[in-house]
Amino acid sequence: MKLEDQVLQIKNTIKTAYEETLSRSGLLKSKKMPADAVPKESLSDRNKLEPLMQVFLGEMEYQTARSKLIEELTFTLFNQIAALKVIDLKESNSSFIIERIIQRPENAGLSFAHLKYISEHPEKRDEEFKGLRSFLSSEFEKTGKRINLYSAEYPFNIMPETSGLKKVIDEFNKIDEKELKSDDFLGFCYEYYNRDEKRLFKDSGAKIEFDKVSLSSQIYTPSWVVEFILNNSLGKLWMEMHPESHMKNRRNIANIPDKQTRAIKPVEELKFIDLCCGSGNFFHTAFDIFFEMYTEAGYKEKEIPEKILSNNLYGIDLDDRAIQIAHLGLFIKALEKNPDFSMERINIVSTDFHLPEFEEVKRLFEGSFPLIKLPEIWEDIRQAEKFGSLIDIKSKIIPERKEGQRSLNPEEEHETQKEVIKKIKTVFQKNIRDNSRSSFINRKAAESMTFVDILTQKYDVAASNPPYTDGANYGIELKKFVEKNYKKRNCSFNTNLYACFFKRNCDIINEAGKVGMIHPLTFMFIKTFEDMRKYIINNLHINLFVHMGLDRHSFNGVLVDPAIYILENGDKLSNKNSTFIRLIHYLERDKKSKCLQIIHDISQDKENSDVYRIDQEKLKVISGWPFIYWISDSFREKFTSNYLNDVVDVRVGCTTSNNIRFLRYWWEVDQNKISYNYLEDSKKWIPYAKGGPFNKWYGNLWLVVNWENNGTEIHSIKESVVRNEDYYLREGLTYSSSGSKGATYRLLPKNHIFDSMAASLFLKEGFDNIYYIQSLLNSQFANFIIDGLNPTAATQVGDNKRVPFVYPSKVLEKVISQLSFENVSIKKHLCEFSIIERNYKSSPFSVDKDKNCEQNKTEALKVYLKYENKLYTQILLNESIIDEKIFEVYQLTESDKQIVLEKERISVGSLSIIVQEGNTFEFLKKEISPSKETAEIINEYLKKLECKKLDSNAWQSLVKQVEELYKMSKSIEDISLSCQVNPLTVLHILNNSSVIPEKKSQRIAQEFVLDQVRTILKADDDGIVPVSQMSGEKTVYERLLDKLDEEHFSQKDIQFLELLLGKRLDKYLETEFFKDECDILNKFMYLPMTPFIWHLSSGEAGGIDLYTIIYNWSRDKLLKIKSVYAQKRKTGLENRLAQLSDGSSIKIDEEKEIIQKQLMEIDEFCKKIDKIASSGYSPVLDNGVGKNIAPLQKEKMLKTNVLTEKELEIFLNADW
Fold first, then answer.
1. Do 390 and 507 form a contact (C-beta atoms < 8 A)?
2. Is the dihedral of CA 938, 939, 944, 947 positive or negative?
3. What is the CA radius of gyration of the chain?
4. For position 95, what pLDDT does the model report?
5. What DSSP string describes 194-214?
6. Is residue 402 domain-resident?
7. In this structure, what CATH number is given to the domain that contains residue 476?
8. What whole-number distance in Å separates Cα of residue 522 and Cα of residue 535?
9. What share of the chain is helix, strand, coil (3-state, %, to 5)?
10. Would residue 562 count as lying in a domain?
11. What are the DSSP E strand ranges found in 726-790?
12. Contacts of 472 (CB under 8 A, 6+ apart)
């Protein structure tokens, strides 16, 4: 069993044990029994549990309080047992550390300590499980003298019943000892412990408030990342003071100075802090580094742990449970060095404490600091339970100046701050004395003093892996706090919680301090983090920066896209370059090893091609100051003149606020209401661009939007945002704002509106060539730039604006725009063969129908596929020429061009042309037919390509490889990339091959059948055709056979069609057609499926099955199904039953049974129709498929579900 599953199993075992303990103590699930009703043996537990219940009952009702108490008890016992188990396995000669949890056969199935205990206390042998509970209580008491978690005073140190305790220990002893020996064990336990809670919260879709941050966005930091950060911050700090230190031989530290660069500071005075420390894994490595420092400073080993915990390590977290684990982890670390260690003082606290309102303590401040805003400071401290270390107390302890009064100098200000903090701590102490409550509350109040003490000091190193909560997901209270404290006019850090913690880390370090962090790399490029970038570049020195890229392998299966960095105070004006490490091009599994190898190389002064050294001032050259460190100075200069924003307007489009209400696929509305020129026809539905899948040049125009009366209905919705309306209906370019392959730019024809997820570009005066701009943006050069400006999956408007623009020569402009125009024309033409496109004309089975009526359909399909392959090859060659010509426009050096080519997917049209011996390059040129305008351009380009010849064996090997890939429905581009050959070679091979692409051919066949059935239903009087036999009229299968005969399909052609579909045609129509139709028409994952042909079905017995088409659908048609079609089918079945009445055999009896079920099913089907009709069902075509089909799906009248559960609920309750 995986550790993750074991942790959850142990957690549930403990919870069950405490459920039983509370119930036996009279704290039942629904009520509390009086104490005199509790069994005598459980009274002791009741007396311990009662005060804790009272604390929780002060804040919540009984059942919630009881659950909360069980949660706390469960977590505490889990950690207590887990820590003892870990300590059992740590090597030590001390008599203190003997096995207490590990049970062994040689000890009669007990632990060594338990066996020893009963030998010393023989009277315990007869207790349940040989006095297990008494033994553990004894061990906890001993350990409690060394760490508070086990002491009798610790509020949740209450054991469950013995039987439950035994189960818990048995479960712990199933964990692999290798897992337990890791410093990360307790941290991973905590990560897994909360797995179910995290999933529940994520599934809820709720906004994130302070108390849910740990469930939503914190990821456990792998130990190698922690070591990397702390070696190069805390370790480097030591090396800057002691360059002779042997630490450099034990740790990989980059950029170690040759001589002392920092004033020596006693190790006792060095301070490290983690402001969001979680379970404390940063402290483990920090402990080890400080231990090395103390050892080198001459301290005795046994005295070092106490000094580290007292002087050097500081931490804060909202989560009291996480802090509990942090304490345990450090306790175990200390025991390894000093088996007699006792944890008396530690500067790592949770902010889970409560303070009274200022009015209750106001009297204690009277006469103190009249110019200080004490109420505001006190209120901030009270907010610590919500916002933890993001509270900035010290900056607010600045006296208000009266008019004419001078400001305090830094020394005076510092002294005032010290006095105010001292007074606040005095008030804390007095408040605790004056309001003596439970030990639990007093302990939490005392922690508030430590919290204030921690937050009002300065530190040498601050490091953390903060929460990654995006500003869009903040809850109301969190949003208000963050915007108040981290959103400033000239320097904002409110975009993400990690930015807030970054700023706190910078504020809390001293004048020569260091910050080490890991978090998502979005801040490197995105516009909303521009202030953070500028703050870094202007105020700090980037010492070391790792650009990781997407990785789950190094982060325990969690996909993250992190940057890791070390920043330094006080070094900004030095002449030191910044060191960047680029890992984004490596496979996930290799990133960790590559990173560590690079750091080793740097520490050994070895060159490494993944290391870039740059003066961080150069990052200011590009607008917005993105961290584009990997380009040359000459390339960087391209950003110093014109930008694309100078020649085009880049605009975000419409946000309807309710897409399923206002958007439709073009096929689900009245075709006569779709506008072709809105300024003249003012029709209701206007074509609408909304991004969509990766697709260059032209396409993805499947939607229409309700723009009746100039969009009055959308405008009336408060949440709708109709942006840039002046640009609607204009020709431009549009692109999908998100996609793993990057943005692709398509022509936006006139008379279209565009979505916020399909930002669009429009020409400004002064440059009027939209096709040139399209070529530029679809080029390798622009992809490289945009990916550099923002390597996330979402291309922003600002990214396009910042693409450098060079006015091309007239010659280059003409060549490039002609190629772009041809690509658009080809893509638009190819849309004519797909049923989902508005310009659809005919199926590939019907290409050159007049010329090939005698040709079988196998050949007809091959003719089309070869034709399509030729056109795609033409596009690929055109793209390669565009890439080359754009390089010419920008006059890139060979080295800069190589940088682009190494990063971007190779333009396959530039690959070598391969021919078989005996053939020539000229022979291959005949495979394509470029337009008259581009023929000469293509010919000149092809002449420059390398041409290689293969002998017969090598050629046949290549042919086999190409055919195998094509059979898998790989594109011409993908085949070229895989085989590293020019698409002309691929095209030549495929033109001489009989192989067809299986999945692609199947989709063509599916679309063909869909088209034929649509034609059949449109031609039918009422648009309803039975699937079932014995329905009184021809079935859809019979009509389809007639239609295929009209299309000159022979029996062999039908068999070929069935081969592609994977089923006999009649069975396909019965079982697969509707599912395939839904899949074909499902183009946007966040919009519902919209089949225009519906397969209505009474159920699995096959009582009645029909097809209907939405264009004829109405309430009357629904009733007609009952009154006409169901009755005809019922009559047919009853007649068949009568024919079988005299017969008797197994086969006949089975058929009779089936018919009886079918008749019953039809009756139920008719009742469903009555129910829907009585509800007022009155479908309107323009309401869309979703709303019209929802009542049918609810009653289970469809062959397969069309809507998700959530969509179904929305449509059933839609009031539009």
1. no
2. positive
3. 37
4. 47
5. THHHHHHHHHHT--B-GGGHH
6. no
7. 3.40.50.150
8. 15
9. 55, 10, 35
10. yes
11. 732-735, 745-748, 753-754, 760-763
12. none
Query: Predicted confidence band at 376 (pLDDT cuts at 50, 70, 90)?
Result: confident
Whether 1149 and 1128 share a structural domain:
yes
Burial 410-420 (b: 16+ CB within 10 A, else e): eeeeeebbeeb
What is the distance between the alpha carbons of residues 252 and 234, in angstroms, rounded to a whole number? 12
Do residues 333 and 472 both lie within one domain?
A: yes
Would you call 868 helix, strand, or coil by DSSP?
helix
Which of 136-145, 397-406, 936-945 shows the lowest mean pLDDT across its residues?
Answer: 397-406
Is the domain of 48 the same as that of 163?
yes
Residue 1017 to residues 1040, 1042, 1078, 1106, 1121: CA-CA distances in angstroms?
A: 10, 13, 17, 11, 15
* CATH number of domain containing 663: 3.90.220.10
Residue with tokens 């607010």: 396
Instruction: Compute CA distances 466 → 219, 497, 562, whole Å.
Output: 9, 7, 12
Structure tokens at 851: 């010329």
Which of 571, 602, 630 is the last residue in one of the domains? 630
Residue type, 1028: S
Q: What is the pLDDT of residues 308-356, one digit of tens each?
A: 999 999 999 998 889 999 999 999 999 999 988 999 889 999 998 877 7
262, part of any domain: yes
Beta carbons of 853 and 1048 less than 8 angstroms apart? yes
In this prediction the pTM is 0.79
Asked if residue 647 and residue 623 are part of one domain, the reply reads: no
Distance CA 885, CA 891 (A): 10
Reported as a pLDDT band with limits 50, 70 and 90, residue 835 is very high
Residue linked to tokens 């969190």: 478
d(CA 221, CA 229): 11
SS3 for 411?
helix
Write out the residue range of the structural domain in which residue 503 sits: 211-350+458-610+617-630
The overall average pLDDT reported for the chain is 90
Q: Are residues 1011 and 948 in the same domain?
A: no
Chain centroid offset of residue 516 CA: 24
Q: Is residue 1101 part of a domain?
A: yes
Q: CB-side exposure of 1152: number of CA atoms within 13 Å? A: 13
Q: Kindly state the tokens that stand for 175.
A: 């964990």
**What pLDDT, on the 0 to 100 scale, is given for residue 375?**
79
Q: Is the distance from CB of 590 to CB of 610 less than 8 angstroms?
A: no
Residue 573 confidence (pLDDT): 47
Looking at residue 737, its amino acid is: S
Residue with tokens 């142990």: 10
DSSP-derived secondary structure letter, 619: G
Q: Hunting for tokens 């110093």 — which residue is that? A: 640
Half-sphere exposure of 801 (CA within 13 A, CB side): 13
Q: What is the pLDDT of residues 661-716, one digit of tens each?
A: 999 999 999 999 999 999 999 999 999 999 999 999 999 999 999 999 999 999 99
Q: Is the pLDDT of residue 179 over 80?
A: yes
Pair (623, 723) in one structural domain: no
How large is the angle between the packed helices 952-967 and 972-979, nearest 10 degrees?
A: 140
Residue with tokens 């009709």: 1173
**How far is residue 1159 from each of residues 419, 1030, 1131, measured CA to CA in Å?**
90, 13, 10
Q: Give the type of residue at 313.
A: L
Of 599, 630, 661, the residue that ends a domain is 630
Render 318-339 in DSSP notation, one character per residue: S-HHHHHHHHHHHHHHHHHH-T
**Same domain? 597 vs 681:** no
The count of structural domains within the chain is 5
Q: What residue type is assigned to position 280 of the chain?
A: G
> Which tokens hold the place of 315?
């931490």
Placement of tokens 């020409």 in the chain = 763
What DSSP element (H or E) covers 1109? strand 1105-1109
Say yes or no: 955 and 1074 in one domain: no
d(CA 241, CA 381): 36
3-state secondary structure 959-981: HHHHHHHHHCCCCHHHHHHHHCC
Place of tokens 């197994």: 1146
